[in-house]
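hey so i finally got around to running the thing on that chain from the lab meeting. sorry it took forever, my laptop kept dying and i had to restart like 3 times. anyway pasting the input first so we r on the same page abt which one it is
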Amino acid sequence: MSPSTSEPPNPGQLSPLPGVHRHITTHDSNGKAIFHSSEPGDWTTYTPSMAFDVVYTTSNSPPNMNNDVDISNHEAVRTSGKLGLVNAGGSVCRIVDFGPLSSEEHSKGIMHRTQSLDYGIVLEGELECVLDSGEKRVMRRGDVAVQRGTMHEWRNTSTTEWARIVFVLLESEKIQIAGRELDEDLSAGGEEVEKAMKSQQ
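ok and heres what got predicted. didnt touch it at all, straight out
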């Protein structure tokens, strides 16, 4: 599927998909809404076929937006080198680009579980969400996944086109099934993704 606009990629962006821009609002001294900042995406490459842009984070719920405290906190988290897949006590908004894979690579997704409620909205292309039960769903532009602390992985279905999805992750309580607590599980490669995120902040 071709990109929806001719917007050029951001500097340092891995994929050929349209560049993204983050526009943050705030208030002036009279309480009128104004724009605080507008910036292009800041991409981190994990592999030759995967890159991500952390759009925004919050570190408590509900967030404190007085005096732009949340903006200051976001910048501190973003540069701390400690942000993993989930931001403890808060949220993360992250855009992820998945490159086209060969048929052999299609079986090499990263099965993982985070202690979070995730909203995943496909922006470009097609992605397959695979659960540890073996169930699968192909998601296309505009489709939404509500990931509730389950083991899952993502695969680009195309061998020629890039795909893009935006995730909003909210830290959750641990899942309990029949009295058994399901821990966060990054053993199948998720740990390496998290390390890459921390090392490149």
